[in-house]
Write a structure and sequence with these properties.
The protein has one domain. The protein contains three helices and five strands. About 20% of the residues lie in helices and about 25% in strands. Strands 1-5-4 form a three-stranded antiparallel sheet. A two-stranded antiparallel sheet has the order 2-3. By secondary structure, the protein is of the alpha+beta class.
């Protein structure tokens, strides 16, 4: 939420998100640890050499609520399963629903 609120303060018209999500049907954010040795994994802001960072994976419904709270309209999710992909070798997280891509438009702000 802090990141979404900071983004919203910049007043973008559109937002593109590609992120891991929880597959839970409930409005939840799963908290877990993630190894920091891979560049694409969670960033660590403290000095030293921590073995992991703590990340949160929102469910799809929780992500929708977070975007709404940050003053974005309901998101439009990319339909990976109907994109004509034949080989899912490197895209398995999208196929299984563990990762999503979406666009969200800012709500019209009244002056």
């Amino acid at each position: 939420m802090p990141l979404l609120r900071k983004i919203a303060r910049l007043r973008p018209r559109h937002l593109i998100i590609d992120t891991l999500i929880s597959v839970s049907p409930a409005n939840v954010v799963e908290i877990k640890e993630e190894k920091v040795e891979l560049e694409s994994n969670g960033a660590v802001g403290e000095p030293g050499a921590p073995a992991f960072s703590v990340i949160g994976k929102p469910s799809r419904s929780a992500l929708d609520l977070m975007l709404q709270a940050a003053d974005f309209q309901p998101p439009r999710y990319y339909d990976w399963l109907n994109a004509g992909i034949k080989r899912w070798d490197d895209l398995e997280v999208y196929y299984l629903g563990h990762r999503v891509s979406l666009t969200a438009e800012a709500r019209v702000r009244q002056a």
